[in-house]
Amino acid sequence: MSENILEINNLSKYFGGLAAVSNCSLKVKKGTITGIIGPNGSGKTTLFNLIAGNLKSSSGSVIFDQENITDVPSYELFSKGLLRTFQIAHEFSNLSVLENLMMVPGNQSGEKLMTALLKPKLVAAEEVIVKEKDFDVEGLLEGIAGMLEPYTEEIKELKEELSVLTSGFNEVADEPAAKKVANTFSQEAQNRATTAEARFERLVSLRNSKK
Prior knowledge:
four-stranded antiparallel sheet, 2 domains, Rossmann fold, alpha+beta, 7 helices
């Protein structure tokens, strides 16, 4: 059994005569957090789009959890446990934080019209389970929020990221550091952010240990 959750093999993407990604190969081990670093225009976002099914490749392959997902559209990858997040969170503004978190788990019975109409008890039972998990996420972040009150937008984004992690998904995040405002923190705020980061890392470790 492979120790890699993701394998990219000679992946390329051409736009006309321009090679945005050329023969890229890499491996990501299970239970790890991997970053891709490069200057603007080097193809990082295009690579994420290829992995996440937002673009079709010119050549090469993408293997996720030992399954070939090359050119599989993003809405199908979600049900396989792979999704992409973006630099700016786009939540449903007419829903509460908890209701937004409850939207994350895929393949819920309530998503199917006939099931929602004919089996309301099943839908309600699933919602109770989902709500309990998201209460855990919300409770952890509310504790951290008191220390980082000036940075409520970053807390909202972190809640969504934690919800993804605790739902068993593998996330492809484009420029996650662009969301942060660490360079503008005072020394006190930096210390508080370090505490929040440590709690976040413990949650990630807990989730990985349950696999």
